[in-house]
From TrEMBL:
It comes from the Bacteria. InterPro entries: KH_dom-like_a/b (IPR015946), OsmC/Ohr_fam (IPR003718), OsmC/Ohrsf (IPR036102). Pfam families: OsmC. This is Putative OsmC-like protein.
Length: 134
């Protein structure tokens, strides 16, 4: 088992990672009857894309002896009302400027091959940009 999700009432869940015991809550968003006090389930999907892209870039960077520490990603999730679903995810990566052009291309390609990127429905537009100025 990967995770255990408990519905705690009030449109909230508690999500526990079995192996580590770490947990987080989700809350329905304000525009869908929730309090918006935590990540919504669709927020976790959009954020998971950026997190996964960082993970595979980190693996590649380790092999290339590059340091990506303190890089950031800004995530914007776009929703459609009927049917309610994610239509677009914008991810803007802010990366170290000391990375060479050759390694930038390698890292950008690697990011776009992450498992979450491949797992999202093809109708979800992914607008991925890289800013190399940290």
């Amino acid at each position: 088992m990967t995770a255990k999700v408990i519905y705690t009432g009030g449109l909230r869940t508690n999500c526990e990672h079995i192996r580590s015991g770490n947990s987080f809550i989700t809350d329905a968003p304000l525009d869908n009857q929730g309090l918006g006090q935590a990540f919504s389930p669709t927020d976790t999907v959009a954020t998971g894309l950026a997190s996964c892209m960082f993970s595979v870039m980190g693996i590649k960077a380790r092999g290339l002896e590059l340091d990506l520490e303190n890089s950031t990603a800004e995530v914007i999730k776009h929703m459609e009302a009927d049917p309610r679903r994610i239509t677009r995810i914008d991810v803007k990566f802010n990366m170290p400027k000391i990375i060479s052009d050759k390694h930038r291309k390698i890292l950008e390609h690697t990011a776009r091959t992450c498992p979450v990127h491949y797992s999202l429905h093809p109708d979800i537009v992914r607008n991925i940009t890289f800013q190399w100025d940290l």
